[in-house]
């Protein structure tokens, strides 16, 4: 009995100390913010012919070349909190690569708030919470937009508590993945004007990495890699052809990761591939295309027409 009481006492002390430490880890007051969706629109020509507002304040610009956070709309008074990518003075290439709330747009005077508790919250003008990171009181001390386009909330040790890379919509940036044990799919937009979930999806599961068309509730396979135990994680990557050279072509690839040994599959039957691509690197990488310059600023998108396309920016065009 005494031993049980002692064990319970130490468990209580541990929980209390942990809770106290978490409570102490807060976002500094001068790094919190509340951005109101109001004011003038930007003047660049943007994908989907959208109107947009840049998100920035005295503390954060939320711009890390070539990525920037914005509110945008394709129909009046229906805004999506999103990330765009593009090269300055090359306006036709400004594209949207991540959306937070595309199925639930907000209105004028909606707020985007990062508070001392570490939660990042998008609320509509009436106060209704539309989207959040659910990171309140989890030790978050800061927020940052990284050079690879990953928006992260981190703790005092730099550990990511939340990251946008874990929540792809229709696009994968270089280094971003879909995972069987996590967000396992890309979903297309309905159209250029309607950013809500469309009928096409690219889903990773134990049956493969498969492209589906939702036809009146019936999932029809129309492409992809229907190979059993294809991978546990599929990552979009840009790999230099020669790591020892500065000006070297880059391969745009899908990198496949298995978290445990998988049984081999026959090249016939389930091993067939519906897209015309070639496996390289001993089958752990699938080549999509090659560009004759640094392909770091590239992304893979499932379009509203169901096509899977790779886009890339030519970095030397920066001014």
From TrEMBL:
Signal peptide: 1-25
GO cellular component, one term: plant-type cell wall
Domain annotation Bulb-type lectin: ranges: 45-166
Xref: Pfam families: B_lectin
Listed InterPro entries: Bulb-type_lectin_dom, Bulb-type_lectin_dom_sf
SMART domains on file: B_lectin
Keywords: Disulfide bond, Glycoprotein, Signal
Gene3D superfamilies found in the cross-reference section: Bulb-type lectin domain
Protein name, per record: Bulb-type lectin domain-containing protein
Source species of the chain: Gossypium mustelinum
């Amino acid at each position: 009995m005494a031993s049980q009481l002692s064990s319970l006492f130490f468990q209580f002390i541990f929980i209390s100390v942990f809770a106290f430490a978490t409570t102490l880890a807060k976002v500094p007051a001068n790094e919190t913010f509340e951005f109101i969706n109001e004011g003038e629109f930007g003047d660049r020509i943007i994908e989907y012919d959208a109107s947009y507002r840049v998100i920035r304040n005295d503390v954060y610009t939320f711009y890390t070349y070539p990525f920037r956070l914005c509110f945008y709309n394709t129909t009046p008074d229906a805004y999506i909190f999103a990330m765009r990518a593009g090269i300055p003075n090359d306006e036709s290439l400004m594209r949207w690569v991540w959306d937070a709330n595309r199925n639930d747009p907000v209105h004028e005077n909606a707020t985007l708030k990062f508070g001392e508790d570490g939660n990042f919250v998008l609320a509509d003008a009436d106060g209704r919470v539309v989207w959040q990171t659910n990171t309140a009181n989890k030790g978050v001390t800061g927020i940052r937009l990284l050079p690879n386009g990953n928006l992260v909330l981190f703790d005092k040790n730099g550990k990511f508590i939340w990251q946008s890379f874990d929540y792809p919509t229709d696009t994968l940036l270089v280094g971003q993945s879909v995972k069987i044990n996590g967000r396992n799919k890309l979903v297309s937009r309905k159209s250029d004007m309607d950013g809500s979930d469309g009928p096409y999806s690219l889903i990773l599961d134990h049956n493969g990495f498969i492209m589906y068309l939702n036809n009146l509730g019936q999932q029809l396979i129309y492409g992809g890699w229907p190979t059993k135990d294809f991978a546990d994680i599929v990552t979009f990557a840009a790999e230099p052809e020669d790591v020892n050279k500065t000006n070297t072509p880059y391969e745009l690839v899908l990198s496949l990761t298995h978290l445990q040994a998988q049984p081999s599959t026959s090249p016939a039957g389930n091993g067939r591939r519906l897209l015309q691509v070639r496996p390289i690197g001993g089958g752990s990488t699938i080549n999509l295309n090659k560009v004759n310059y640094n392909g770091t600023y590239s992304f893979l998108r499932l379009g509203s027409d169901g096509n899977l396309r790779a886009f890339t920016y030519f970095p030397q065009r920066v001014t």
